[in-house]
Every structure is written in structure tokens, then in C-alpha cells.
Amino acid sequence: MNELDLLTAITVFVLSVLIGVEVISKVPATLHTPLMSGSNAVHGIVVIGAMLIAAESHTWLGYVLAFVAMVFGAMNVVGGYLVTDRMLEMFKARPAEKKDV
User: DSSP labels for 17-77?
Assistant: First the structure.
């Protein structure tokens, strides 16, 4: 990786952080939980990317970084589904209580 590639990668990272903060700051507070549960599920792409990095890596550092990315991505995927499931449980009708006569 030469200096120009590193500078390009840092530039893309900084711009994506700034755009992410700008986009998230415009979301109303009532939509944060549904938005985050859905976007956490998108982290499946991170898991696939980490697998591709692990396949291409030839150093122990690459393997460690790929493993850490896979663990964090998997945690986000599972967490996203758990939060979504919990939110959907709130909208189910409660069973009517039986009265003894």
C-alpha cells in the first residue's frame, strides 16, 4: 500500500464519518431504535467482507483484524434481529383474561 492509497483510504473514512453524523442527526428520536435495528442487520455485509479479507490475508495481523471484524459484525447482526423481534413483540395483541364466574 503506497502513500496515495493510504491517503485515499483515510479521506474516504473521514468523509463517511462526517456524512454519517449528518444523516443520523436529522433522524427524529422516535425513529432511532427501528433505524438502528435495521441497520445493524445490514452488518452481514461486514461479516462477508471480513471473510474476504481473511481469505486474502497472509499475515497474522490480517487474520486477527478479520476475526475481530467478523465477531463485531456478527454481534451487530444478532443484536439487530433481537431488537427488531423485541419491538415487534410490543405490537402483538395481549390475550384476554378469563373471568371465573
Answer: HHHHHHHHHTS-GGGHHHHHHHHHHTTHHHHHHHHHHHHH--SHHHHHHHHHHHHHHHHHH
